[in-house]
């Protein structure tokens, strides 16, 4: 229920809220951003955001620059087998004589591709379905809900096994598309819930009374109000897609013609690297996955604090 | 001008939508140009629902609403937009009516891009200035600000100015001043009175009888979705016939009479058990009261 | 009886102190219902709450509060525990949502009482009697808040807040969210509580002067953190001395007044910011009677027997 002038708990305290919002003191999530600088100011002062962002940027840098630093091909049998890290093979070699470092940096690239493409597709689908279901309600909502629930329940692994049997998954982009097409339901649910609550606000009615159509209202009224939410959702989907991709690769369900971190771990496992003590083979990809995904999640926690002042430590 | 004919609004409730909640039942009335009609009812009376149906924000389940003889349920696209050029609404919570992340004038620029895209900047500024002047707002004080930087009274007036920009003929004012302080309420109310004398028809929805009495020509008392009494304001207030109306009038706290003095021996029903409401019967010229006989059928 | 002397309570904010209540002094006799009126931001809610519990944002700055001859240690939350609910009680502003939706009413009552070392069984007969008085059956104790209507919830909270017969009961905007007929019923109940001796004195906080006229013996009007006027209800309504009270009253439409016949007017301008309030009388900027002396803050003094006002022109 809306609160009237009279019913505000502490009118004086409310003045505080109003005053502070106008000052560079305590921004509120829905506070008008009078410039990107303000968001950046608070984001960069949050150590979790900084830490997460830092880790992710290091990984991105490694993915971009790494392949330039090595002469080898990831899958080529270039050197002696089972070598620990040395000055020539920085991360050592596999039991097939492949350079682990090269595999690692190419694997990072693959991970980022899967993350962006898979996460991006899931984000787009989730947003479209969520907004439409939330705003239109009625039978549209019922139908989309059913669709969401069905896709939610489908086990990705089983689906991908079946798909892999019929479609030769040649590239990570294809894998990413498949991941994207199956991981959007929770995003749709979240967006739908937010849309439901925003839809009842009177400014949506005012927009309707101004002759604005559904799509316009979603794009210009609702989405901007949820921008922090949508950003965080993307980051989570990004990380999630990488994780799913790595899991699939580890199970051998991903493309076998190129290399990824998950595939590296799969190979290491199949070659009994653990038992043989070849730590240089499975530790880098493991650390790589943890670093990217963990970094993204920590960044997200930090962002949550930035957008929601109540969570901030004083 | 506006005619509401036997309107009903039904909501589906319960598991799988098996139940039905009749929020508005068989409501009929009209609004003439320059007439202020107040819709008085307590919470749950369906008054806001009626307002929303007139504004095409909610669908009518049964019955028709016509504007200048045209059934508004049939309006789509461009014709709906034209309708909004004649009929606008202002709502209860000024702070909820503005998107908090944008400046308050966005409500104007939205209109400009939809209705006045052809105007030059100076023409637009002049038009905006005139509308702001009509609501006694200083452009320098209110333009370019965010909603949280303005007061409730200013925000409500901005919304009225927005409606005036379109040169509307009917304004649906849904509890527009109940969230304002006493000292600003009367100013917004007076503004409505001035607009009425310029020919604007107003549907004034409120729970506050004194406000309705101050400003309206015709009064309708709503109870649980039904009209129980309707007529010229002074007649309804001066000679209330329906028990519910009389309960309301004796419960309103006044400033110079105590409650005990007002009780005219009329028995107030605690909790308000439903009284069987029949169709409206014209008791005297223009004064309609719902008969207490149980309705035939239903 | 309550005696408040020079009470000042500020809110801490990043930009400084918001002087929500600044130097309030007044008295309430036994058996008196005092209405505390004013518009939003005037400090009435803060004043009421500070007598019971200061929440984390409120800061006690000075002044004393004496209830029945004993000083209330309002600056010390722990010490106030002994007084809360037994001597001083409050029906909070959001009473309707103060009820925990996952707890039955009876459970909540039990928890509330045991926190004051009172066993529910001991007061159950009285509780039943009072529920009956307000028109609720005992079965309400076994229900969840969601099953009750707004008016019923309000009455439940009223009964629970006054169950231990506090000397002073503070009702904070208890009628604002109610329908007109329920409003009357609840307001009359408040008076009945006093008449039956459940509470000795009461402070009823609301913006609605007409409700106060109906049930309060005296009315205290606040403006921008300061006391403006205090007098018997009849005096306030018929012969107010402070310009703010006068203008406020004349801006209220009553059934009987129509726009076409008599155009009421409001008070132009807005209340001053409480972060940095102007010196002198805080109503000065909006007052039609302001003159030079208003630059010096007028004291809240008696202008007639049992009638105080803070205005240089009031005594005249």
> Can you give the mean pLDDT of chain C?
87
Spans of chain B of at least 5 consecutive residues whose pLDDT stays below 50 are: none
Largest sheet of chain C: 8 strands, mixed
Class from helix and strand fractions of chain C: alpha/beta
Beta-strand content of chain C: 15-25%
> What form of chain C results from the Cα inertia axes?
globular
Could you provide a short overview of the structure?
The complex is a heterotrimer of chains A (314), B (298) and C (316). Chain A has 314 residues and is an all-alpha fold.
Element layout with pairings:
The complex is a heterotrimer of chains A (314), B (298) and C (316).
Chain A: H1 11-22, H2 36-44, H3 47-69, H4 100-136, H5 138-153, H6 156-166, H7 172-182, H8 185-199, H9 202-209, H10 214-225, H11 227-250, H12 261-270, H13 273-276, H14 279-307
Chain B: E1 2-13, E2 19-31, E3 36-41, H1 47-54, E4 62-67, E5 70-71, H2 77-84, E6 87-90, H3 106-115, H4 121-134, H5 139-142, H6 152-165, E7 170-174, H7 182-197, E8 201-206, H8 209-215, E9 218-223, E10 226-232, H9 233-238, H10 243-251, H11 259-262, E11 280-284, E12 287-290
Parallel strand pairs in B: 3-8, 3-9, 6-7, 7-8
Antiparallel strand pairs in B: 1-2, 1-4, 4-5, 9-10, 10-12, 11-12
Helix pairs in contact in B: 4-6
Chain C: E1 2-13, E2 16-28, E3 33-37, H1 44-50, E4 58-67, E5 70-71, H2 77-80, E6 88-91, H3 95-98, H4 105-114, H5 120-133, H6 150-161, E7 168-172, H7 180-195, E8 201-206, H8 209-215, E9 218-223, E10 226-232, H9 233-238, H10 243-250, E11 301-304, E12 307-309
Parallel strand pairs in C: 3-8, 3-9, 6-7, 7-8
Antiparallel strand pairs in C: 1-2, 1-4, 4-5, 9-10, 10-12, 11-12
Helix pairs in contact in C: 6-7
Give a verbal description of the structure:
The complex is a heterotrimer of chains A (314), B (298) and C (316). Chain A is mainly α. Chain A has helices at residues 11-22, 36-44, 47-69, 100-136, 138-153, 156-166, 172-182, 185-199, 202-209, 214-225, 227-250, 261-270, 273-276, 279-307. Chain A has one domain: Orthogonal Bundle (MetI-like fold), CATH 1.10.3720. Chain A is built from 14 helices and no strands. In chain A, helix 3 packs across helix 4. The relative contact order of chain A is 0.15. With 298 residues, chain B is an alpha/beta fold. Chain B is 34% helix and 26% strand. Chain B contains eleven helices and twelve strands. Chain B has helices at 47-54, 77-84, 106-115, 121-134, 139-142, 152-165, 182-197, 209-215, 233-238, 243-251, 259-262; strands at residues 2-13, 19-31, 36-41, 62-67, 70-71, 87-90, 170-174, 201-206, 218-223, 226-232, 280-284, 287-290. An eight-stranded mixed β-sheet of chain B has the order 6-7-8-3-9-10-12-11, with helices on both faces. Chain B has a four-stranded antiparallel β-sheet with strand order 2-1-4-5. In chain B, helix 4 (121-134) packs across helix 6 (152-165). Chain B starts with a strand and ends in an 8-residue tail after the last strand. The model of chain B has no long low-confidence stretch (mean pLDDT 84). Chain C has a single domain, classed as Rossmann fold (3-Layer(aba) Sandwich). Chain C has helices at residues 44-50, 77-80, 95-98, 105-114, 120-133, 150-161, 180-195, 209-215, 233-238, 243-250, and strands spanning 2-13, 16-28, 33-37, 58-67, 70-71, 88-91, 168-172, 201-206, 218-223, 226-232, 301-304, 307-309. In chain C, strands 6-7-8-3-9-10-12-11 form an eight-stranded mixed β-sheet, sandwiched between helices. In chain C, strand 9 and strand 10 form a beta hairpin. In chain C, helix 6 (150-161) packs parallel to helix 7. The longest helix of chain C has 16 residues, at 180-195. The radius of gyration of chain C is 20 Å and the shape is globular. Chains in contact: A-B, A-C, B-C.
């Amino acid at each position: 229920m809306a609160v009237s002038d009279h019913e505000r708990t502490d009118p004086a305290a409310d003045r505080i809220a109003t005053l502070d919002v106008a000052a560079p003191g305590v921004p509120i999530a829905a506070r008008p951003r009078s410039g990107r600088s303000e968001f950046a100011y608070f984001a960069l002062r949050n150590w979790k955001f900084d830490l997460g962002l830092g880790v992710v940027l290091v990984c991105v840098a490694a993915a971009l620059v790494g392949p330039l630093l090595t002469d080898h091909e990831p899958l080529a049998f270039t050197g002696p087998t089972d070598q620990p890290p040395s000055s020539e093979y920085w991360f050592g070699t596999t039991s097939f004589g492949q350079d682990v470092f090269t595999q690692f940096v190419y694997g990072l690239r693959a991970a980022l591709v899967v993350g962006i493409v898979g996460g991006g597709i899931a984000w787009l689908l989730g947003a479209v379905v969520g907004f439409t279901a939330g705003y239109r309600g009625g039978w549209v909502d019922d139908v989309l809900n059913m669709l969401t629930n069905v896709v939610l329940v489908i086990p990705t692994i089983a689906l991908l096994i079946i798909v892999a049997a019929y479609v030769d998954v040649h590239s990570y982009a294809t894998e990413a598309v498949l991941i994207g097409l199956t991981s959007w339901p929770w995003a749709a649910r979240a967006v739908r819930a937010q849309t439901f609550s925003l839809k009842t606000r009177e400014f949506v009615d005012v927009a309707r009374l101004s002759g604005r159509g559904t799509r316009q209202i979603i794009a210009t009224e609702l989405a901007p109000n949820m921008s922090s939410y949508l950003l965080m959702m993307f980051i989570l989907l990004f990380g999630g897609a990488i994780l799913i991709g790595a899991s699939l690769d580890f199970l051998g369900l991903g493309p076998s013609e190129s290399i990824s971190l998950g595939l590296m771990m799969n190979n290491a496992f199949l070659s009994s690297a653990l038992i043989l003590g070849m730590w240089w083979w499975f530790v880098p990809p493991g650390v790589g996955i943890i670093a990217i995904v963990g970094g993204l999640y920590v960044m997200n926690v930090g962002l949550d604090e930035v957008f929601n002042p109540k969570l901030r430590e004083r | 001008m506006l005619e509401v004919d036997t309107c009903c609004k039904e909501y589906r409730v319960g598991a799988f939508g098996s139940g039905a909640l009749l929020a508005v039942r068989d409501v009929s009335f009209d609004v003439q140009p320059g007439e202020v009609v107040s819709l008085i009812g307590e919470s749950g009376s369906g008054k806001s629902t009626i307002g929303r149906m007139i504004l095409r924000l909610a669908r009518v389940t049964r019955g028709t609403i016509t504007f200048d003889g045209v059934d508004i349920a049939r309006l789509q696209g461009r014709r709906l937009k034209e309708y909004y050029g004649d009929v606008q609404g202002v709502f209860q919570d000024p702070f909820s009516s503005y998107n908090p992340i944008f400046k308050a004038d966005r409500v104007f620029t939205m209109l400009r891009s939809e209705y006045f895209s052809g105007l030059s900047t100076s023409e637009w500024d002049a038009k905006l200035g005139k509308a702001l002047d009509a609501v006694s707002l200083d452009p320098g004080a209110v333009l370019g600000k965010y909603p949280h930087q303005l007061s409730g009274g200013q925000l409500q007036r901005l919304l009225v100015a927005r409606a005036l920009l379109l040169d509307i003929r009917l304004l649906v004012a849904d509890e527009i001043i109940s969230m304002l302080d006493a000292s600003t309420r009367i100013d917004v109310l007076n503004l409505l009175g001035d607009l009425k004398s310029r020919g604007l028809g107003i549907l004034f929805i409120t729970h506050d009888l004194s406000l309705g009495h101050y400003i309206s020509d015709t009064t309708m008392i709503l109870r649980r979705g039904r009209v129980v009494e309707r007529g010229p304001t002074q007649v309804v207030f001066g000679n209330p016939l329906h028990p519910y109306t009389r309960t309301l009038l004796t419960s309103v706290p006044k400033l110079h009479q105590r409650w005990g003095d007002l009780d005219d021996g009329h028995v107030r029903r605690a909790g308000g058990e439903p009284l069987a409401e029949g169709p409206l019967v014209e008791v005297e010229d223009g004064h309609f009261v719902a008969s207490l006989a149980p309705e035939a059928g239903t | 009886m309550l005696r408040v002397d020079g009470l000042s309570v500020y809110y801490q904010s990043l930009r400084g102190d918001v002087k929500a209540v600044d130097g309030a002094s007044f008295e309430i006799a036994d058996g008196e219902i005092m209405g505390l009126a004013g518009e939003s931001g005037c400090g009435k809610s803060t004043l009421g709450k500070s007598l019971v519990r200061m929440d984390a944002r409120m800061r006690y700055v000075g002044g004393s509060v004496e209830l029945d001859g004993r000083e209330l240690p309002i600056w010390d939350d722990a010490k106030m525990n002994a007084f809360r609910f037994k001597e001083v009680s409050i029906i909070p502003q959001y009473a309707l949502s103060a009820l925990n939706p996952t707890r039955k009413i009876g459970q909540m009552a039990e928890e509330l009482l045991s926190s004051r070392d009172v066993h529910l069984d001991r007061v159950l007969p009285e509780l039943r009697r009072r529920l009956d008085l307000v028109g609720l059956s005992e079965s309400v104790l076994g229900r969840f808040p969601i099953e009750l209507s707004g008016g019923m919830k309000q009455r439940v909270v009223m009964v629970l807040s006054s169950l231990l017969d506090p000397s002073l009961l503070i009702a904070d905007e208890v009628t604002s969210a109610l329908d007109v007929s329920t409003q009357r019923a609840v307001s009359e109940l408040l008076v009945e509580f006093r008449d039956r001796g459940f509470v000795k004195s009461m402070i009823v906080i609301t913006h609605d002067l007409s409700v106060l006229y109906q049930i309060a013996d005296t009315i205290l009007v606040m403006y921008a953190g300061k006391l403006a006027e205090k007098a018997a209800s009849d005096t306030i309504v018929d012969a107010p001395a402070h310009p703010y009270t006068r203008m406020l009253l004349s801006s209220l439409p009553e059934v009987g007044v129509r726009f076409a016949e008599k155009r009421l007017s409001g008070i132009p301008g807005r209340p001053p910011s409480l972060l940095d309030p102007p010196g002198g009388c805080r109503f000065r900027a909006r007052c039609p009677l302001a003159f030079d002396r208003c630059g010096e803050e007028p004291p809240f003094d008696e202008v007639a027997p049992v009638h105080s006002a803070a205005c240089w022109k009031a005594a005249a």
